[in-house]
């Protein structure tokens, strides 16, 4: 197991260098998520002052964006990784093994929020679903970022939703994938250039909305004592914003 801290600025420092309000100071978040959507929610909470601990696998790459710098830039600052994970702490855990499981339970039992993007089937299999977490901590707010019906095929839903919910459907020719392409099951524009991808309205915006939902759930817990489940769909968010 190992620990790391993302980002060059300390937790609670705003994007422009100014101090944030610290409204989430004292809030503990455990994040089990990769790529951009749900990690963005964790980054927003960290910027608001929460203590966010990100769980990564110790030998299966860890955070999925580590080997994929945005645009293939040689710049040592990996924008795709840093922007969605700034201000967090990180720990490498194999939660399929007993030692990692014990550490996860210890973290979750003290957490205010458990944040994940794992699909339903995987969460049930690895025993990190709502009932599992509530057995450890009855007051934890369980926050889940879902994709679309293609969730059971990792890596596909973001490309599909870029095509379906952004202006890319008006800027790139639509048609089936070329013969022999790695993914022949999703009907998306034949050319998703880096410019076209910038037109998507899903990942970071949906992550910010998920963070807002978590803030509302924390407020409600203070008033009512009830720990809620918060769910945001990337598809629903993107469709709402784009249309």
Q: Mind sketching the topology for me?
A:
Blueprint: E1 3-5, E2 28-32, H1 37-47, E3 51-56, H2 79-85, E4 89-92, H3 98-109, E5 113-116, H4 120-125, H5 130-136, E6 141-146, H6 157-165, H7 194-197, H8 203-224, E7 229-233, H9 234-242
Parallel strand pairs: 2-3, 2-5, 3-4, 5-6, 6-7
Antiparallel strand pairs: 1-4
Helix pairs in contact: 1-8
Tell me, rounded to a whole number, the average pLDDT: 76
Enumerate the strands of the largest sheet in spatial order, edge to edge or round the barrel.
Answer: 1-4-3-2-5-6-7
Globally, the shape reads globular
N-to-C SSE string, H for helix and E for strand: EEHEHEHEHHEHHHEH
State which percent range the strand residues make up. Answer: 5-15%
The total count of helices amounts to 9
CATH class designation: Alpha Beta
- In whole angstroms, the N-to-C terminal distance is 45 Å
Main beta sheet: 7 strands, mixed
Number of domains: 1
CATH homology-level superfamily = Crotonobetainyl-coa:carnitine coa-transferase, domain 1
Question: Could you explain the architecture of this structure?
Answer:
With 243 residues, the protein is α/β, with parallel strands linked by helices. It has a single domain (3-147, 203-238), classed as 3-Layer(aba) Sandwich (Rossmann fold), CATH 3.40.50.10540. It has nine helices and seven strands. The protein has helices spanning 37-47, 79-85, 98-109, 120-125, 130-136, 157-165, 194-197, 203-224, 234-242, and strands spanning 3-5, 28-32, 51-56, 89-92, 113-116, 141-146, 229-233. It has a seven-stranded mixed beta sheet with strand order 1-4-3-2-5-6-7. Helix 1 (37-47) links the parallel strand 2 (28-32) and strand 3. Helix 1 packs across helix 8 (203-224). The longest helix is centred in the last third of the chain and has 22 residues, at 203-224. The radius of gyration is 18 Å and the shape is globular. Mean pLDDT is 76; it is low at 8-18, 149-156 and 181-200.
